[in-house]
Design goal:
Elements: E1 31-35, E2 50-51, E3 61-64, E4 74-77, H1 78-81, E5 88-97, E6 104-111, E7 118-125, H2 126-129, E8 137-144, E9 154-161, E10 168-177
This protein binds calcium ion.
Calcium ion (CA) binds next to loops.
C-alpha cells in the first residue's frame, strides 16, 4: 500500500522513543525502537495523541481520532537509528480500535534530507488486520527499503488516520533491523 503524506502537519513531534544502546548494529535482528510511550509523558510537547484512555502497557498509548490525523511521530535520521544501510525493517505494534469502522495506517516513511521529498512511504492497514474492536491485537509488517534511501534521510514512524476518524490506539511499538 502506498499513500502520500506530504503535509504531516502540526502533530508531528519528535518522540523520544527509548532504544537499547546495546543494539542497533547490523548483523543481528537488532531492536532499533522499542517504546510503550509511558516514558514520554512530560518529555514531549503536550499532544492529545499521547493518551491514557487505553493502554496495553503502563498508562499511556498514542492515538488517532477525528481531531488527530497523525499520531505522535518518531522522527530520527537513519544514521542515528542504525549504523549501516538497512535493507529490511520489521515494524510491530499493538493496536486497539474503538469500533468496526475505525481505521488507521501504521506507517513507515523515509524523507529525503535534501529536499524533504518522500523516499519511501508504506504502511500496515489496521482495519484489514484487526478484527476485534476493543481488544489489543498485534500488527506487524516487514518493509523492504529502496536502494536510494541514504543514512542522512529521516525515518518516521506514526499512525495515520485513514478512515472514519473513530479512535485507534497504538502501544508497544518495536522496530527491528531484519537485514
Ligand atoms: Ca503504554
Amino acid at each position: 500500500m502506498r499513500f502520500s503524506i506530504l503535509s504531516a502537519g502540526l502533530l508531528l513531534f519528535s518522540a523520544a522513543c527509548s532504544s537499547d544502546g546495546a543494539t542497533g548494529k547490523v548483523g543481528d535482528h537488532s531492536t532499533l525502537i522499542n517504546t510503550g510511550f509511558d516514558d514520554m509523558a512530560g518529555w514531549v510537547p503536550a499532544t492529545p495523541s499521547l493518551t491514557k484512555e487505553r493502554a496495553r502497557s503502563g498508562l499511556y498509548s498514542i492515538k488517532t481520532d477525528k481531531d488527530i490525523e497523525y499520531s505522535l511521530t518518531y522522527r530520527q535520521l537513519l544514521a542515528d537509528v542504525v549504523s549501516s544501510k538497512p535493507r529490511k525493517l520489521r515494524l510491530t505494534g499493538w493496536v486497539n480500535t474503538s469500533g468496526p469502522d475505525a481505521d488507521a495506517i501504521l506507517s513507515l516513511q523515509i524523507l529525503s534530507s535534501k529536499d524533504g521529498s518522500t523516499v519511501f512511504n508504506e504502511g500496515v492497514n489496521v482495519k484489514e488486520q484487526v478484527k476485534k474492536p476493543g481488544s489489543w491485537q498485534q500488527v506487524s509488517h516487514e518493509f523492504v527499503l529502496p536502494e536510494k534511501a541514504i543514512s542522512t534521510d529521516e525515518l518516521r514512524v506514526f499512525l495515520w488516520r485513514a478512515g472514519s476518524g473513530a479512535p485507534v490506539y497504538l502501544d508497544d511499538v518495536e522496530l527491528q533491523l531484519v537485514e
